[in-house]
Amino acid sequence: MAPRADGRLNHDLLPDEKGPQDACGVFGVWAPGEEVAKLTYFGLYALQHRGQESAGIATSNGSQLLVYKDMGLVSQVFDETALNALQGHIAIGHARYSTTGASNWENAQPTLGPTAAGTVALGHNGNLTNTAELVELVAERYGSQRRGELARGNTTDTALITALLAGDPDHTLEATALEVLPRLRGAFSLVFMDERTLYAARDPQGVRPLVLGRLERGWVVASETPALDIVGASFVREVEPGEFIAIDSDGLRSTKFATPERAGCVFEYVYLARPDTTIAGRSVHAARVEMGRRLAIEHPVEADLVIPVPESGTPAAVGYAQQSGIPFGQGLTKNAYVGRTFIQPSQTLRQLGIRLKLNPLREIIRGKRLVVVDDSIVRGNTQRALIRMLREAGAAEVHVRISSPPVKWPCFYGIDFASRAELIANGLTPDEIGASLGADSLGYISETSLIEATEQPASQLCTACFSGRYPIELPSADQLGKHLLEQNELPLGAPEDGLVAIIPGAGGATALDHP
Q: I need a surface site. Which of 23, 83, 448, 470 has the fewest CB within 10 A?
């Protein structure tokens, strides 16, 4: 049987070309009397841009916790039958892009594990940096044999968090979480639940976004504000860095488990977040338009038309046009229905490359001096192919403008960039990169202007991918990497089921088996 297309939506415009890959999307709801599985489905639908590899939802009716997850887009994984089976008044959901552990069913979220009093299901956006240390802690506390999700082949840092939340008979899940959370290093925006309570937590740096919303009959937590909008929840506030929230029949409780040291990801403003999102009080769309304005001031050029690379370059292109006085136009049309597919293009189609997703509007481009605005350059292959295509369509000049500084460093906090050796900005000046791409000129926004466009203090942003300044200390190179938990030498021995503590009636005994 031929595998189905995975339907992923992504930044990649060339076959096999890897652009900046998104973080994950998390959603949680506590709302008695509401169809929480359907609310979560639509919440994840609004967060689909953050991860397209797998999706899952867990629900609880107060005594029984159920999880349903699979590979693919939210709309592929769930149908009415699956959602109707997920009954209850508490739910969490997750849309995944893999940053630790391979992209497979075993690593899909929410993860599931036993606790002293029941079951925990957990979704995680971000990436931990002390994974090797946490492996040692799991082995120390619960023995060296792999248990629960770890026993079933899960190789993610999320599975380690879930294992550590097992706790002991003398501690509630809430108490265990408050002991475990301060031990985690790196980026983590978490939603998790047991049979009776919804929880949320955010790392002390607040690297990844997480917001709190209010329903008429409950509460919602989500990665981005559009997920609140789509379910009719009103925005209350951000979950604060270092904050732990619990929501149950007694209401909402908030505890600080760490001192905030804000270092929000600036790339959320550049590309990751939806343009209709608000982060730290700043509209992402407005920030991107302002980036374009500042880009026009820093890198002016005489031209006839400003065009974006759709869709991520559009707001900055609007800003560039407004500031420069050069008309804005749609010189490229994008096929919205072409994602990655298991059907590989023939060699003939592969040579056409970028045309699988973008095609020029020749009557608009022909004879024009173009300013082409995009959000970032990683390897440069996409821009090189794009410039060639525009010249073939009759462009007189092609001037490339980028609304982020040169990407020179990998991210260890939840974005999967290419390796440092593959990043074109390493070892080349902007002029040399422009020549390599075949552009008439190339201009990047400065880091200062980018930060000013976000309206956030520089001290409260992470710019590591541009500057190499990592706000959260990194371990040695041998303790980093996407596939760290797949290494045999880690101190976790042969699998043990580890699910005996889960009440059989809750479905826990078979919840980790692939259907």
A: 448
